[in-house]
Design brief:
The protein has eight helices and twelve strands. With 271 residues, the protein is of the alpha/beta class. The chain has two domains: 73 residues, Ubiquitin-like (UB roll) (Roll), CATH 3.10.20; 167 residues, Rossmann fold, CATH 3.40.50. β8 and β9 form a beta hairpin. The longest helix has 25 residues.
Length: 271
């Protein structure tokens, strides 16, 4: 009886080991397919991305491959953005990429840094002339983002500077119902760390002026969340002259509410 039990246990163990070995052998990546989501003229970068991902992950254990692994591997191609990763057991990876578009540029030191709409660093330039005129210019005054320590392909850590973080919120809130609204209306942005202002200079001429003046985070949030009211003021309460001249000033009052007013010159003192 003991001999039969030993034989049975040994048989089960051998079966389990063979099953595990088969699972490991089958569960390895053998196919890596990369598809581009939009029409781009520069397909070479995506072919390179596919070759890189194939070299990196082919033969790897299927369940050990994560989306973050793929994104980290693609940092050397900063214009390639991962939209989706589909893992089809036992051996296939389907990756959909899109091209990051240049949206912003700012200057620090003797270099210009180009970012996409999600504030990922795409490239460095030596002069403004190397950058397309459709890219929104950001001018920094007494604001240091420390990008000289950041890698191309990484996201700018705007938490290191509150004003820059507020700007990203304001710009994003402008796109509330139209993802292209801010890009269409904003010509350039000035972030003044000394005066604690954020200026959005519009294509029509008027400047949207947001004054923070050492406000608490809660008050700053109120200012940032007033953008829909600022849009309504600009669209409905400004005639053509006001849209082409002066400032639309946005200031938090002691009451906790936000005052929005147009002035010929920077009129926050009187709001």
């Amino acid at each position: 009886m003991k001999y039969k039990r030993l034989v049975l246990i040994s048989t089960v163990l051998v079966f389990v080991m063979m099953l595990a070995l088969a699972f490991v052998w089958l569960g390895r990546v053998r196919f890596v397919y990369v598809r581009v989501d939009n029409n781009v003229s520069d397909n070479e970068i995506y072919k390179k991305a596919e070759d890189t991902l194939t070299d990196r992950f082919k033969g790897k254990l299927f369940f050990s491959v994560s989306v973050s692994d793929i994104e980290n591997e693609l940092k050397q191609y900063p214009y390639a953005k991962v939209l989706s990763v589909k893992k089809s057991f036992p051996d296939r990876l389907d990756i959909v990429l899109t091209k990051r578009q240049e949206a912003f540029v700012f200057n620090e030191g003797d270099k210009y840094y180009v970012m996409d709409s999600e504030y990922y660093l795409l490239r460095e330039a030596q002069s403004d002339d190397e950058i397309d005129s459709t890219v929104t210019r950001i001018h920094l005054k007494a604001v240091d983002l420390g990008v000289d320590k950041s890698e191309i392909g990484s996201k700018v850590d705007y938490k290191v500077n509150k004003l820059f973080g507020y700007m990203t919120t304001i710009y994003g809130n402008l796109n509330d119902k139209d993802i292209n609204y801010a890009a269409n209306i904003v010509k350039e942005i000035v972030i003044d760390g000394e005066k604690e202002f954020i200026y959005l200079r519009t294509n029509t001429g008027v400047t949207l002026s947001f004054w923070f003046d050492r406000k608490s985070d809660s008050v700053a949030k109120i200012i940032c969340n007033s953008v829909s009211d600022v849009k309504e003021y600009y669209e409905s309460r400004c005639d053509e002259y006001k849209k082409r001249n002066g400032y639309i000033s946005v200031v938090a009052k002691d009451t906790g509410k936000v005052a929005i007013e147009w002035a010929e010159s920077e009129g926050w003192e009187n709001v």
